[in-house]
Here is the input.
Amino acid sequence: MKMTYFQDTDTLYLEFNNNPIVETQEINENTLVDLDKNGNICAITLEHARSLTDLNAFSLETIVAPELASSL
Here is the structure.
């Protein structure tokens, strides 16, 4: 997964995989979803990202399933 912020256009691009994009669907005026040939989400584009998100407070949290925790 890769996140890219384009400051000049205030656009946040969240890329989930490198699958070829065959379709882009507009969810609303600020959100686009890129799909592969199987309808899987490849990426999400957020226009006007600063008004929709708090870019300075990014964090990643991993939740381990209880059945996996004992094997760690």
